[in-house]
Each structure stands twice: as C-alpha cells, then as structure tokens.
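Predict structure. Chain length: 292.
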Amino acid sequence: MSSSFEKYQKRRLISSYFSVVISISLVLFLLGLLGLLVLNTKKVADHFKEKIALTIYLKDTAKDVEIKQLEKTLALAEYTKSTTFISKDEAAEEHSKDIGENFMDFLGYNPLQNSIDVYLKADFVDQVKIEEINASIIKKDFVDEVIYDKPLISLLNDNIKRISFWVLLISGVFTFIAVLLINSSIRLSVYSKRFIIKTMQMVGATKKFIRKPFVWKSVRLGMIGAMVALIGVGIVLYYLNKTFPELALLDDEILLIILFAGIFGIGVLITWISTFFATQRFLNLRTDELYY
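Prediction complete.
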C-alpha cells in the first residue's frame, strides 16, 4: 500500500514538473519568436525599401564616356546599393515582350531612352533625401529626367512607422503576459507543496533553508524550459533563413546571441523571482490559512 502511494506521489510530482517545463518553454518560445520579429523589423523594412528604384533617363546625345562616368559616380556614392544600366534597345525588347508585339514596326524607330536604375540604401529612401539626390543628378546636361514613385515611398515609410509602433506595443503586452503565465505555473507548483513547507517550518527549519531547494528546483525547471524554447526558436530561424535567404537572418550573430541569452535569462529570472515570493507567501501564512 505504501509502495503504491509513493509511486502515485512520484507520478504526480513528475507530472507537475512536466507541466511547469512545458508552460515555461511554450511561453518563452512565443516570446523568442516575438523577439525575432522585433529584431528583424528594420531588416525586413530595409529589404522592401531597397527594392525601390530611382530611374535616370539619359538624352540620346549622351556620350558613352559620360554614361560610364555617371555609372562610376553613382556606384561610389554613399546612397547607392546597386545600379543597372538599361540600353534603349533592351528597354524596347522588354516592352515588346510586355505588350506581345514589336511596337517599333509601327513607329519605324525606337522612342525609348537609355536609362540607369539606381537602387538606394534603405537609410536614403526618404522623400527629402531622394529630392537632394535628384537635384544633384538632374544638373548634368546629358540627363533628361529622374523619376521615382513618390506615393509608394511615402506610403512605405508611413506603414513602416505604424507597423514598428504596433510591433513594439504588442511585444510589451506579450512580455507582460509571459511573465504572468510563468509566474502562475510556478505558484501552482509551490501551492501543491504548501503543507510540506509549513511542516518544515513547524519543526524549526529557517525560511532560507526551506526556500532554497524550491528556488533551485524551479530555476532548473526554468533552464530546461528555456533550452526547449531555444531549440524551437532555432528550428524556426533555420527554416525562415532557408525560405527568405535575402533577409540574412543568421548573419547578425551578436543580435542572435543577445536574443538567445535574453530568453534563457528571462526563464531563469522569472522562475527564481516567482518561486521566492510564492514560498515566502506560504511561509508567512498561518496553518489554518493553508486550506483556503
């Protein structure tokens, strides 16, 4: 009878520990994914910004040497991510493919112009900075015009600011919820042992002596839960990097180390604080109050 009861108690204990670890790992996993989103919000925004092209149309009188010199100047400029020269013949061929027929057969000549597509670095995709770049380029005699999608740039910047605000706000809310959930799991675990805590106190054990094994046990569970969460985040990060290699999610190793260390630290810190205050609460209760 005694043996079966001990087995039952062990099963309950293991089940309790398992539920705490699962709760901690799930919460930290979601927190880790949110951390990935926060850390890579700017990177994703920059990726879309750098897809916007500034197109420079050149006059037919432009000499090859002038075009080559302009390409070199643009390539060395601090605002340039990359440049692509498109000849009028290439532009005509591409346009013919788009409309499904050779429009030059009707016109008898090629009305298109040589052009250079300039892809800017994300920090320069701004209305004011682009206008400054535009003003410096349009001064050249062989440049006909410089065009870019003003409404798209304005809309993109506004949406990025809005999305960044909401991501930070949601991150704060989820972090608070994560703390509450982990705290609740730890408190329930300690609550199931409240009579053991009070019994140890009644036979003369000090509060520090009683609290120490509970705190260390919870911290170990927090470490295990954090490791499980980190494995999950690592798997998700690996597949995201394979799916979207252009975002280079694994390139910034320092940020990733900070994120993983932060998740592990949060798991340990919250379990330590929660267990400390949970055990302290039951240590301060009278015996008759343990039943409520």
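Summary: The mean pLDDT is 79.
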